[in-house]
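Sanity check

After download, print the first record. It should look like this:
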Amino acid sequence: MLDEWFRAAGDHAATVMDSRGKVLARYGFHDVARIAGVPSGELAHAARVGTWMSAEPAPAADGKSVTVQAGGRTLSLSLETGAFTLVSR
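Expected C-alpha cells:
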C-alpha cells in the first residue's frame, strides 16, 4: 500500500504485507525523505501523486519490487522483504 492520500505528512507512506496480511515493513513520510536523501519540504514540493510521490508507482519487470519516483529520486520497494532503497539520484 502506498500513501495515506491525506494532504499531510503521515506515518503510512508505504506498507508492505505478505500474503497472510503480516506487515513486513512500514515507512512514514519522513522515512521516505531520509531514504531519498532530500529534505521533507522538497519531497512534498515535488509530489504529484499523494503527499510524496512524483509519479504513479510502477511494478518492476520481475514483479518483485515497485519503482517509485519521489523528490527527484528513483526508489525501489521490495515486495518480498519490504526493503526501501534509493536507486538513483
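If your output differs, re-run the checksum step. Summary of this record's structure: The longest strand covers residues 65-70.
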